[in-house]
Amino acid sequence: MQNKKSKLIVINAIIAALYVVVTSLTAFMAFGDVQFRIAEMLNHLFAFDKKYGIGVVAGVLLVNSVFMSASGLGLYDLVFGLGHTIASFAISALFFKSVKDVKTRMFVLAGVFSVMIFLVAIELNLALGLPFWLSYAQTFFGEIVVLLAGIPLMTALNKAIDLKKLIND
């Protein structure tokens, strides 16, 4: 039992670290009204098992904390960015009750995260005074592109690793 808990903690710590590293390396395009946050591809891990969500949420929390002043979004980024991730996972989990196929779950997840990106558009409006609808369109576009591009990558990763088994063994 203790080994399973330790393994879950280690796997989610690695996911959080990956989220931070990937976002740090691509920070020039990970923030603002036009953003392609490549680390968002890790959201798809949730489609394999909800336990992966812990690492992704931790990664978002760390990234938005570290880049809080550099992005110009301050505390807004913690509240709205983290809220976006948590709310999107919660809504996706509801859909997953009737969707068992992992690939379909990834498409559902891409749709939910992209629609829910309105929270980030509100953040950009409040923090930077950017127009809501334009920000929503731009962030929606970035999110859907990244998440759709992530589906074949996560499918290939799953073939190599078996993501469901990894977190449950």
Automatic annotation (TrEMBL):
- Tell me which species this is from: Granulicatella adiacens ATCC 49175
Q: This protein's superkingdom?
A: Bacteria
The protein depicted here goes by the name: QueT transporter
Residue spans crossing the bilayer: 6-31, 52-72, 78-96, 108-134, 140-157
InterPro entries in alphabetical order: QueT
Pfam families per record: QueT
> Per UniProt, which keywords does this protein have?
Membrane, Transmembrane, Transmembrane helix
Signal peptide positions are: none
